[in-house]
């Protein structure tokens, strides 16, 4: 993506969602720490995300971005500190419990059922979220709603014409769209996407940024991202993670101008990537 396109996309990013007084943050990390053996990987991370904000988490390789996602989504329990979802503690809870509380993390493509159609894949996600696994009778009563919701999702992610296509026969970009459809299918209000455009061409990426914006409208979005075109096109705010700490959390413009960030990571990277046409 060219630097002009990046600036245009940044200008179009949603205005920052304001937090009403007394309302909890959609997601909050308080002095979060995680050690693997003797190595402390996350070192007192702090973050407070308002409902409806789109956040990109960036940082050098090995800074701890994926580990943060794993701590938030419940794959890892923190060594200490707190994770709050809409003001409720979720640290230490299991991934499915956190999912039920309204936070959904993108499934990897390997979690798409390759031999099921687009419709069937999406409906699995929707039915799961409606709780069909607890009761067959509930499953039957929910089926109508689930079908309607699935049709709506298919339209939203632009795969309605591929309704009966098996997931294995979709293009890579279509599979990633399906993955996002499954992630948002359950109606979660906080969505975590791990490098959603990785492996896509420039034109696919530009299209996908718009798709992500559309399907996460009104939701809180966190992405881990390396591509600065995606970061500046998608994010209301950027969290810069360096060595297990959030060293800056601000608007793209402010982060770009932040001396500590430039020194630690971003200055050269943005300049290089923009010059490189990303
Ligand atoms: N399960 C684990 N056991 C031991 N060490 C781990 C584990 N998971 C991550 N680490 C270590 O934690 C550090 C941070 O890794 P992490 O994957 O979170 O970084 P990252 O910022 O996502 O990097 P990248 O941008 O390269 O994906 C690395 O040194 C990694 O080796």
UniProtKB/TrEMBL annotation:
Q: Which SUPFAM superfamilies match?
A: P-loop containing nucleoside triphosphate hydrolases
Cross-referenced InterPro entries:
AAA+_ATPase, ABC_AA/LPS_Transport, ABC_transporter-like_ATP-bd, BCA_ABC_TP_C, P-loop_NTPase
Record-annotated ABC transporter domain positions = 27-268
Q: Which keywords does the record carry?
A: ATP-binding, Cell membrane, Membrane, Nucleotide-binding, Transport
Please name the Gene3D superfamilies in this protein's record: P-loop containing nucleotide triphosphate hydrolases
Gene Ontology molecular function: any one: ATP binding
PANTHER family in the record, alphabetically? ABC TRANSPORTER ATP-BINDING PROTEIN, CONSERVED COMPONENT OF ABC TRANSPORTER FOR NATURAL AMINO ACIDS-RELATED
* UniProt-recorded name of the protein: ABC transporter ATP-binding protein
Q: Which organism is it from?
A: Comamonas resistens
